[in-house]
Design goal:
The chain is an all-alpha fold. Helices cover 73% and strands 1% of the residues. A two-stranded antiparallel ribbon has the order 1-2. Keywords: Membrane, Transmembrane, Transmembrane helix, Transport.
Length: 485
Protein backbone atom coordinates (compact mmCIF):
# COMPACT_ATOMS: atom_id res chain seq x y z
CA UNK A 1 0.00 0.00 0.00
CA UNK A 2 1.26 3.42 -0.85
CA UNK A 3 2.22 5.64 2.07
CA UNK A 4 0.86 8.72 0.35
CA UNK A 5 -2.71 9.72 -0.40
CA UNK A 6 -3.88 11.49 -3.54
CA UNK A 7 -5.60 14.86 -3.67
CA UNK A 8 -8.67 13.12 -5.11
CA UNK A 9 -8.82 10.91 -2.00
CA UNK A 10 -8.97 14.01 0.19
CA UNK A 11 -11.54 15.73 -2.03
CA UNK A 12 -13.77 12.64 -2.05
CA UNK A 13 -13.59 12.30 1.70
CA UNK A 14 -14.32 15.98 2.32
CA UNK A 15 -17.27 15.62 -0.03
CA UNK A 16 -18.78 13.18 2.39
CA UNK A 17 -18.77 9.99 0.32
CA UNK A 18 -16.92 7.99 2.97
CA UNK A 19 -18.27 9.57 6.15
CA UNK A 20 -20.52 7.32 8.24
CA UNK A 21 -22.83 8.56 10.95
CA UNK A 22 -24.07 6.19 13.62
CA UNK A 23 -27.49 7.66 14.41
CA UNK A 24 -28.11 5.43 17.42
CA UNK A 25 -25.08 6.55 19.39
CA UNK A 26 -24.58 9.98 17.80
CA UNK A 27 -20.95 9.13 17.03
CA UNK A 28 -19.46 10.35 13.79
CA UNK A 29 -17.03 7.84 12.34
CA UNK A 30 -14.52 9.52 10.04
CA UNK A 31 -11.94 7.35 8.29
CA UNK A 32 -9.72 10.46 8.13
CA UNK A 33 -7.59 9.08 5.31
CA UNK A 34 -5.82 6.54 7.55
CA UNK A 35 -6.91 3.86 5.07
CA UNK A 36 -4.95 5.60 2.30
CA UNK A 37 -1.67 5.28 4.18
CA UNK A 38 0.41 2.36 5.32
CA UNK A 39 -0.84 1.68 8.90
CA UNK A 40 2.72 1.14 10.10
CA UNK A 41 3.72 4.49 8.61
CA UNK A 42 0.84 6.25 10.38
CA UNK A 43 1.50 4.53 13.70
CA UNK A 44 5.25 5.16 13.58
CA UNK A 45 4.80 8.84 12.70
CA UNK A 46 2.19 9.54 15.39
CA UNK A 47 4.33 7.76 17.97
CA UNK A 48 7.34 9.86 16.93
CA UNK A 49 5.26 13.04 17.27
CA UNK A 50 4.08 11.90 20.71
CA UNK A 51 7.61 11.34 21.96
CA UNK A 52 8.96 14.57 20.48
CA UNK A 53 6.12 16.72 21.76
CA UNK A 54 4.52 15.44 24.95
CA UNK A 55 7.45 14.73 27.35
CA UNK A 56 9.16 18.07 26.67
CA UNK A 57 5.99 20.17 26.77
CA UNK A 58 4.77 18.30 29.86
CA UNK A 59 8.05 18.88 31.67
CA UNK A 60 8.17 22.57 30.75
CA UNK A 61 4.59 23.06 31.92
CA UNK A 62 5.44 21.21 35.13
CA UNK A 63 8.14 23.80 35.77
CA UNK A 64 5.58 26.53 35.05
CA UNK A 65 3.19 25.04 37.61
CA UNK A 66 5.96 24.68 40.18
CA UNK A 67 7.07 28.28 39.70
CA UNK A 68 3.47 29.49 39.83
CA UNK A 69 2.35 27.61 42.94
CA UNK A 70 5.52 27.21 45.03
CA UNK A 71 4.52 30.23 47.12
CA UNK A 72 2.78 27.96 49.63
CA UNK A 73 5.86 25.74 49.91
CA UNK A 74 8.14 28.77 50.32
CA UNK A 75 5.80 30.19 52.95
CA UNK A 76 6.02 26.95 54.92
CA UNK A 77 9.82 27.01 54.53
CA UNK A 78 10.31 30.33 56.35
CA UNK A 79 9.13 33.07 54.00
CA UNK A 80 6.09 33.67 56.21
CA UNK A 81 8.27 34.87 59.08
CA UNK A 82 10.82 36.79 56.99
CA UNK A 83 8.30 38.76 54.92
CA UNK A 84 5.53 38.75 57.56
CA UNK A 85 2.95 37.31 55.17
CA UNK A 86 0.54 36.42 57.99
CA UNK A 87 -0.33 40.09 58.52
CA UNK A 88 -3.73 40.85 57.02
CA UNK A 89 -4.20 39.36 53.56
CA UNK A 90 -0.63 39.78 52.36
CA UNK A 91 -0.27 36.16 51.26
CA UNK A 92 -3.57 36.23 49.37
CA UNK A 93 -2.59 39.47 47.62
CA UNK A 94 0.82 38.12 46.61
CA UNK A 95 -0.84 34.94 45.32
CA UNK A 96 -3.67 36.72 43.52
CA UNK A 97 -1.83 39.55 41.76
CA UNK A 98 -0.10 37.08 39.44
CA UNK A 99 -3.40 36.27 37.73
CA UNK A 100 -4.26 39.72 36.36
CA UNK A 101 -1.53 39.90 33.69
CA UNK A 102 -1.90 36.14 33.26
CA UNK A 103 -5.52 36.59 32.14
CA UNK A 104 -5.14 39.81 30.15
CA UNK A 105 -2.29 38.57 27.95
CA UNK A 106 -3.64 35.12 27.01
CA UNK A 107 -5.40 36.06 23.77
CA UNK A 108 -2.64 38.45 22.53
CA UNK A 109 -0.15 35.63 23.15
CA UNK A 110 -2.01 33.14 20.97
CA UNK A 111 -2.55 35.74 18.26
CA UNK A 112 1.18 36.46 17.87
CA UNK A 113 2.24 32.82 18.34
CA UNK A 114 1.98 31.87 14.68
CA UNK A 115 3.52 35.10 13.42
CA UNK A 116 6.80 34.86 15.37
CA UNK A 117 6.90 31.07 15.65
CA UNK A 118 6.55 28.70 18.60
CA UNK A 119 10.28 28.40 19.26
CA UNK A 120 10.95 32.12 19.78
CA UNK A 121 7.67 32.80 21.58
CA UNK A 122 7.95 29.91 24.05
CA UNK A 123 11.62 30.60 24.72
CA UNK A 124 10.84 34.22 25.63
CA UNK A 125 8.10 32.97 27.97
CA UNK A 126 10.28 30.41 29.76
CA UNK A 127 13.38 32.57 30.19
CA UNK A 128 11.24 35.55 31.24
CA UNK A 129 9.44 33.76 34.03
CA UNK A 130 12.70 32.08 35.09
CA UNK A 131 14.22 35.52 35.67
CA UNK A 132 11.09 36.57 37.59
CA UNK A 133 11.36 33.46 39.76
CA UNK A 134 15.03 34.12 40.37
CA UNK A 135 14.22 37.66 41.50
CA UNK A 136 11.93 36.36 44.23
CA UNK A 137 14.95 34.90 46.02
CA UNK A 138 16.19 38.39 46.84
CA UNK A 139 13.03 40.37 47.66
CA UNK A 140 13.31 42.31 50.95
CA UNK A 141 9.56 42.84 51.46
CA UNK A 142 6.25 41.29 50.48
CA UNK A 143 5.62 44.23 48.12
CA UNK A 144 8.64 43.35 45.97
CA UNK A 145 7.50 39.72 46.08
CA UNK A 146 4.15 40.82 44.63
CA UNK A 147 5.93 42.77 41.88
CA UNK A 148 7.91 39.69 40.86
CA UNK A 149 4.65 37.75 40.79
CA UNK A 150 3.26 40.30 38.32
CA UNK A 151 6.18 39.67 35.94
CA UNK A 152 5.75 35.94 36.46
CA UNK A 153 2.15 36.31 35.26
CA UNK A 154 3.25 38.38 32.24
CA UNK A 155 5.64 35.73 30.94
CA UNK A 156 3.54 32.68 31.83
CA UNK A 157 0.39 34.15 30.27
CA UNK A 158 0.88 32.90 26.73
CA UNK A 159 2.49 29.60 27.62
CA UNK A 160 -0.30 27.14 28.51
CA UNK A 161 -2.77 28.25 25.80
CA UNK A 162 0.04 28.06 23.24
CA UNK A 163 0.87 24.51 24.25
CA UNK A 164 -2.77 23.41 24.19
CA UNK A 165 -3.28 25.12 20.81
CA UNK A 166 -0.21 23.46 19.29
CA UNK A 167 -1.08 19.98 20.59
CA UNK A 168 -4.65 20.07 19.26
CA UNK A 169 -3.43 20.89 15.72
CA UNK A 170 -1.50 17.61 15.43
CA UNK A 171 -4.22 15.06 16.24
CA UNK A 172 -7.74 13.98 15.35
CA UNK A 173 -10.57 14.82 17.73
CA UNK A 174 -10.74 11.45 19.48
CA UNK A 175 -6.98 11.26 19.93
CA UNK A 176 -6.58 14.62 21.60
CA UNK A 177 -7.76 14.12 25.21
CA UNK A 178 -5.27 11.33 25.90
CA UNK A 179 -2.50 13.60 24.59
CA UNK A 180 -3.67 16.59 26.60
CA UNK A 181 -3.96 14.32 29.64
CA UNK A 182 -0.45 12.88 29.17
CA UNK A 183 0.92 16.39 28.79
CA UNK A 184 -1.00 17.67 31.80
CA UNK A 185 -0.68 14.64 34.09
CA UNK A 186 3.07 14.41 33.52
CA UNK A 187 3.30 18.00 34.70
CA UNK A 188 1.06 17.25 37.70
CA UNK A 189 3.08 14.19 38.75
CA UNK A 190 6.34 16.11 38.46
CA UNK A 191 4.81 19.06 40.32
CA UNK A 192 3.65 16.78 43.12
CA UNK A 193 7.29 16.07 43.92
CA UNK A 194 8.11 19.79 44.04
CA UNK A 195 7.49 19.83 47.78
CA UNK A 196 9.98 17.00 48.31
CA UNK A 197 12.49 18.77 46.07
CA UNK A 198 11.88 21.96 48.03
CA UNK A 199 12.36 20.06 51.30
CA UNK A 200 15.81 19.01 50.07
CA UNK A 201 16.62 22.58 49.03
CA UNK A 202 15.73 23.90 52.50
CA UNK A 203 18.71 21.96 53.82
CA UNK A 204 20.79 24.76 52.30
CA UNK A 205 19.36 27.19 54.87
CA UNK A 206 22.13 29.49 56.06
CA UNK A 207 24.40 28.93 53.06
CA UNK A 208 25.46 32.25 51.48
CA UNK A 209 23.36 33.94 54.19
CA UNK A 210 20.16 32.83 52.43
CA UNK A 211 17.12 31.28 54.09
CA UNK A 212 15.57 28.03 52.82
CA UNK A 213 12.76 29.75 50.91
CA UNK A 214 15.30 31.95 49.11
CA UNK A 215 17.21 28.88 47.96
CA UNK A 216 13.95 27.44 46.61
CA UNK A 217 13.38 30.45 44.38
CA UNK A 218 17.06 30.73 43.43
CA UNK A 219 17.57 27.14 42.31
CA UNK A 220 14.18 26.78 40.62
CA UNK A 221 14.68 30.11 38.82
CA UNK A 222 18.09 29.06 37.48
CA UNK A 223 16.73 25.68 36.34
CA UNK A 224 13.90 27.43 34.50
CA UNK A 225 16.32 29.70 32.63
CA UNK A 226 18.38 26.68 31.56
CA UNK A 227 15.18 24.97 30.41
CA UNK A 228 14.45 28.01 28.25
CA UNK A 229 17.63 27.24 26.28
CA UNK A 230 16.45 23.64 25.79
CA UNK A 231 13.11 24.93 24.52
CA UNK A 232 14.88 27.04 21.88
CA UNK A 233 16.51 23.95 20.37
CA UNK A 234 13.84 21.27 20.76
CA UNK A 235 10.32 22.69 21.08
CA UNK A 236 7.96 21.51 18.28
CA UNK A 237 6.03 23.96 16.13
CA UNK A 238 2.72 23.60 14.26
CA UNK A 239 2.56 20.61 11.87
CA UNK A 240 2.77 22.85 8.78
CA UNK A 241 5.97 24.47 10.12
CA UNK A 242 7.83 21.82 12.14
CA UNK A 243 11.17 20.63 10.82
CA UNK A 244 11.52 17.33 12.70
CA UNK A 245 9.10 15.53 10.33
CA UNK A 246 9.51 14.72 6.63
CA UNK A 247 7.30 16.20 3.92
CA UNK A 248 5.61 12.82 3.52
CA UNK A 249 4.84 12.71 7.25
CA UNK A 250 3.64 16.32 7.19
CA UNK A 251 1.19 15.57 4.38
CA UNK A 252 -0.18 12.52 6.19
CA UNK A 253 -0.70 14.43 9.45
CA UNK A 254 -2.40 17.35 7.71
CA UNK A 255 -4.57 14.97 5.64
CA UNK A 256 -5.80 13.22 8.80
CA UNK A 257 -6.71 16.51 10.46
CA UNK A 258 -8.37 17.84 7.31
CA UNK A 259 -10.52 14.74 6.93
CA UNK A 260 -11.42 14.72 10.62
CA UNK A 261 -12.48 18.34 11.07
CA UNK A 262 -11.47 20.32 7.96
CA UNK A 263 -9.04 22.82 9.51
CA UNK A 264 -5.56 21.56 8.67
CA UNK A 265 -4.83 24.78 6.75
CA UNK A 266 -4.50 27.87 9.00
CA UNK A 267 -6.95 30.66 8.25
CA UNK A 268 -6.13 34.35 8.60
CA UNK A 269 -7.30 36.24 11.67
CA UNK A 270 -9.41 39.37 11.10
CA UNK A 271 -11.14 41.71 13.54
CA UNK A 272 -14.48 40.40 12.30
CA UNK A 273 -13.46 36.81 13.04
CA UNK A 274 -12.09 37.77 16.44
CA UNK A 275 -15.34 39.41 17.55
CA UNK A 276 -17.39 36.60 16.01
CA UNK A 277 -15.44 33.97 17.96
CA UNK A 278 -15.72 35.96 21.20
CA UNK A 279 -19.48 36.37 20.76
CA UNK A 280 -20.14 32.61 20.81
CA UNK A 281 -21.99 31.82 24.08
CA UNK A 282 -20.52 28.31 24.11
CA UNK A 283 -17.03 29.78 24.45
CA UNK A 284 -18.06 31.41 27.72
CA UNK A 285 -19.72 28.20 28.91
CA UNK A 286 -16.43 26.38 28.39
CA UNK A 287 -14.62 29.24 30.14
CA UNK A 288 -16.83 28.93 33.22
CA UNK A 289 -16.25 25.17 33.26
CA UNK A 290 -12.53 25.86 33.27
CA UNK A 291 -12.92 28.26 36.19
CA UNK A 292 -14.71 25.49 38.10
CA UNK A 293 -11.92 23.03 37.25
CA UNK A 294 -8.92 25.24 37.96
CA UNK A 295 -10.09 26.69 41.26
CA UNK A 296 -9.73 23.40 43.23
CA UNK A 297 -6.51 22.70 41.30
CA UNK A 298 -5.07 26.02 42.45
CA UNK A 299 -6.34 25.37 45.97
CA UNK A 300 -4.27 22.19 46.02
CA UNK A 301 -1.23 23.98 44.57
CA UNK A 302 -1.35 27.03 46.83
CA UNK A 303 -2.78 25.62 50.06
CA UNK A 304 -2.32 21.84 50.34
CA UNK A 305 1.02 22.12 52.17
CA UNK A 306 -0.50 24.76 54.46
CA UNK A 307 -3.63 22.64 55.07
CA UNK A 308 -1.52 19.59 55.89
CA UNK A 309 0.63 21.60 58.29
CA UNK A 310 -2.60 22.87 59.87
CA UNK A 311 -3.48 19.27 60.68
CA UNK A 312 -0.58 19.28 63.13
CA UNK A 313 2.20 17.85 60.99
CA UNK A 314 5.71 19.28 61.13
CA UNK A 315 7.12 21.45 58.36
CA UNK A 316 9.15 18.52 56.99
CA UNK A 317 6.21 16.10 57.02
CA UNK A 318 3.88 18.68 55.49
CA UNK A 319 6.29 19.12 52.56
CA UNK A 320 6.70 15.36 52.10
CA UNK A 321 2.98 14.54 52.39
CA UNK A 322 2.11 17.00 49.61
CA UNK A 323 3.48 14.63 46.94
CA UNK A 324 1.27 11.46 47.09
CA UNK A 325 -2.05 13.17 46.19
CA UNK A 326 -0.44 14.51 43.01
CA UNK A 327 0.78 11.08 41.92
CA UNK A 328 -2.70 9.63 42.47
CA UNK A 329 -4.22 12.53 40.52
CA UNK A 330 -1.92 11.84 37.57
CA UNK A 331 -3.03 8.20 37.35
CA UNK A 332 -6.70 9.15 37.67
CA UNK A 333 -6.35 11.87 35.03
CA UNK A 334 -4.95 9.47 32.44
CA UNK A 335 -7.52 6.76 33.24
CA UNK A 336 -10.45 9.09 32.64
CA UNK A 337 -8.82 10.55 29.51
CA UNK A 338 -8.32 7.05 28.08
CA UNK A 339 -11.96 6.16 28.84
CA UNK A 340 -13.19 9.44 27.31
CA UNK A 341 -11.28 8.88 24.06
CA UNK A 342 -12.26 5.21 23.97
CA UNK A 343 -15.98 5.91 24.42
CA UNK A 344 -15.85 9.20 22.46
CA UNK A 345 -17.71 10.86 25.30
CA UNK A 346 -16.62 13.99 27.13
CA UNK A 347 -19.50 15.34 29.23
CA UNK A 348 -20.29 12.14 31.16
CA UNK A 349 -16.77 11.64 32.46
CA UNK A 350 -16.34 15.29 33.43
CA UNK A 351 -19.46 15.05 35.62
CA UNK A 352 -18.11 11.88 37.28
CA UNK A 353 -14.91 13.74 38.14
CA UNK A 354 -16.93 16.71 39.44
CA UNK A 355 -18.59 14.38 41.94
CA UNK A 356 -15.21 12.98 42.99
CA UNK A 357 -14.09 16.56 43.68
CA UNK A 358 -17.28 17.27 45.63
CA UNK A 359 -16.81 14.24 47.87
CA UNK A 360 -13.26 15.36 48.62
CA UNK A 361 -14.34 18.93 49.40
CA UNK A 362 -17.06 17.82 51.82
CA UNK A 363 -14.69 15.42 53.60
CA UNK A 364 -11.99 18.08 53.89
CA UNK A 365 -14.45 20.64 55.23
CA UNK A 366 -16.30 18.57 57.79
CA UNK A 367 -14.38 15.46 58.76
CA UNK A 368 -12.84 15.52 62.25
CA UNK A 369 -10.26 12.90 61.33
CA UNK A 370 -6.94 14.12 59.95
CA UNK A 371 -6.31 10.90 57.97
CA UNK A 372 -9.73 11.32 56.33
CA UNK A 373 -9.03 14.98 55.56
CA UNK A 374 -5.70 13.97 54.04
CA UNK A 375 -7.48 11.34 51.91
CA UNK A 376 -9.84 14.11 50.80
CA UNK A 377 -6.88 15.91 49.21
CA UNK A 378 -6.41 12.85 46.97
CA UNK A 379 -10.02 13.11 45.77
CA UNK A 380 -9.97 16.88 45.24
CA UNK A 381 -6.68 16.66 43.36
CA UNK A 382 -7.82 13.74 41.19
CA UNK A 383 -11.20 15.21 40.26
CA UNK A 384 -9.94 18.71 39.49
CA UNK A 385 -6.83 17.53 37.67
CA UNK A 386 -8.84 15.28 35.37
CA UNK A 387 -11.32 18.02 34.50
CA UNK A 388 -8.67 20.47 33.27
CA UNK A 389 -7.65 18.52 30.11
CA UNK A 390 -11.23 17.24 29.79
CA UNK A 391 -12.64 20.77 29.39
CA UNK A 392 -9.91 21.63 26.88
CA UNK A 393 -10.65 18.46 24.88
CA UNK A 394 -14.42 19.04 25.05
CA UNK A 395 -13.89 22.53 23.70
CA UNK A 396 -11.32 21.53 21.04
CA UNK A 397 -13.55 18.71 19.75
CA UNK A 398 -16.43 21.07 19.07
CA UNK A 399 -14.78 23.85 17.06
CA UNK A 400 -13.01 24.20 13.72
CA UNK A 401 -10.53 26.69 12.19
CA UNK A 402 -7.19 27.80 13.61
CA UNK A 403 -8.40 31.29 14.44
CA UNK A 404 -11.32 30.07 16.53
CA UNK A 405 -9.11 27.45 18.15
CA UNK A 406 -6.52 30.08 19.12
CA UNK A 407 -9.10 32.55 20.49
CA UNK A 408 -11.17 29.95 22.31
CA UNK A 409 -8.19 28.15 23.85
CA UNK A 410 -6.69 31.42 25.08
CA UNK A 411 -10.01 32.69 26.48
CA UNK A 412 -10.73 29.45 28.31
CA UNK A 413 -7.28 29.27 29.87
CA UNK A 414 -7.45 32.96 30.75
CA UNK A 415 -10.66 32.17 32.61
CA UNK A 416 -8.62 29.68 34.60
CA UNK A 417 -6.91 32.73 36.06
CA UNK A 418 -10.25 33.65 37.62
CA UNK A 419 -10.14 30.28 39.36
CA UNK A 420 -6.69 31.18 40.65
CA UNK A 421 -7.86 34.57 41.91
CA UNK A 422 -10.82 32.97 43.67
CA UNK A 423 -8.61 30.30 45.23
CA UNK A 424 -6.17 32.88 46.55
CA UNK A 425 -8.86 35.21 47.94
CA UNK A 426 -11.70 33.07 49.32
CA UNK A 427 -9.22 30.86 51.20
CA UNK A 428 -8.60 33.58 53.77
CA UNK A 429 -6.02 33.59 56.55
CA UNK A 430 -8.80 34.14 59.10
CA UNK A 431 -10.39 30.80 58.05
CA UNK A 432 -7.25 28.75 58.65
CA UNK A 433 -6.98 25.75 59.02
CA UNK A 434 -10.32 24.45 57.60
CA UNK A 435 -11.08 27.29 55.17
CA UNK A 436 -14.84 26.62 55.18
CA UNK A 437 -15.61 29.79 53.24
CA UNK A 438 -13.26 28.71 50.44
CA UNK A 439 -14.48 25.12 50.51
CA UNK A 440 -18.08 26.20 49.93
CA UNK A 441 -17.11 28.55 47.11
CA UNK A 442 -15.34 25.64 45.43
CA UNK A 443 -18.31 23.34 46.04
CA UNK A 444 -20.64 25.88 44.41
CA UNK A 445 -18.46 25.99 41.29
CA UNK A 446 -18.60 22.20 40.95
CA UNK A 447 -22.40 22.32 40.88
CA UNK A 448 -22.24 25.18 38.35
CA UNK A 449 -20.01 23.08 36.10
CA UNK A 450 -22.40 20.13 36.25
CA UNK A 451 -25.22 22.47 35.20
CA UNK A 452 -23.17 23.89 32.30
CA UNK A 453 -22.21 20.43 31.09
CA UNK A 454 -25.90 19.57 31.01
CA UNK A 455 -26.77 22.70 29.04
CA UNK A 456 -24.00 22.23 26.46
CA UNK A 457 -24.90 18.56 26.04
CA UNK A 458 -28.51 19.54 25.33
CA UNK A 459 -27.42 22.18 22.78
CA UNK A 460 -24.98 19.89 20.98
CA UNK A 461 -27.42 16.96 20.86
CA UNK A 462 -30.18 19.20 19.48
CA UNK A 463 -27.92 20.71 16.81
CA UNK A 464 -26.72 17.25 15.75
CA UNK A 465 -30.34 16.07 15.40
CA UNK A 466 -31.40 19.12 13.39
CA UNK A 467 -28.39 18.72 11.13
CA UNK A 468 -29.21 15.06 10.44
CA UNK A 469 -32.80 16.03 9.66
CA UNK A 470 -31.61 18.67 7.22
CA UNK A 471 -33.10 21.51 9.27
CA UNK A 472 -29.76 23.12 10.10
CA UNK A 473 -26.84 24.13 7.90
CA UNK A 474 -23.31 22.74 8.19
CA UNK A 475 -22.12 22.77 11.81
CA UNK A 476 -19.06 24.95 12.44
CA UNK A 477 -18.95 25.58 8.69
CA UNK A 478 -17.98 21.96 7.89
CA UNK A 479 -20.27 19.76 5.83
CA UNK A 480 -19.64 16.51 7.70
CA UNK A 481 -18.95 17.88 11.17
CA UNK A 482 -20.97 16.76 14.22
CA UNK A 483 -20.50 17.80 17.82
CA UNK A 484 -18.93 15.54 20.42
CA UNK A 485 -21.10 15.00 23.50
Amino acid sequence: MSSTGSKQDLDDLKGGSEVKVNFDTEKVEVPALDAHYDPDFVKKTIRMVDWRMLPLLGFVYAVALIDRTNLGIARTAGMDEDLKLSIGERYSIASMIYFFPYMILQIPGNLILRSIGARLFLTICVVGWGVSQLGMAFVPTWGYLSLCRVFLGVFEAGFFPSLAFIITTWYKRYEVQKRLAIFYLSSIVITSFASIFAFGITKLTGKANLNGWQWIFLIEGLLTIVLGVVVWFFVPDFPDKSRFITEEQRKMILDRVEADRGDSVPDTMTWRKLFSHLSDPLLWAFALMFVASTMPAYVIGLFSTIIIKGMGYSQANALLLTAPPGVFAGASCFLFAWIADKTRKRALWMVVQNFITLIGLFLSAYSESNPVRYFALFLINAGATGCVPAVLAYSANNITSHTKRSVQTATIIAAGGVGGIMASTVFRQRDFPRYLNGMWATIGLQFLMILLVGVTTFVFRRRNRLRREGKLGPLEGQEDFYYTL
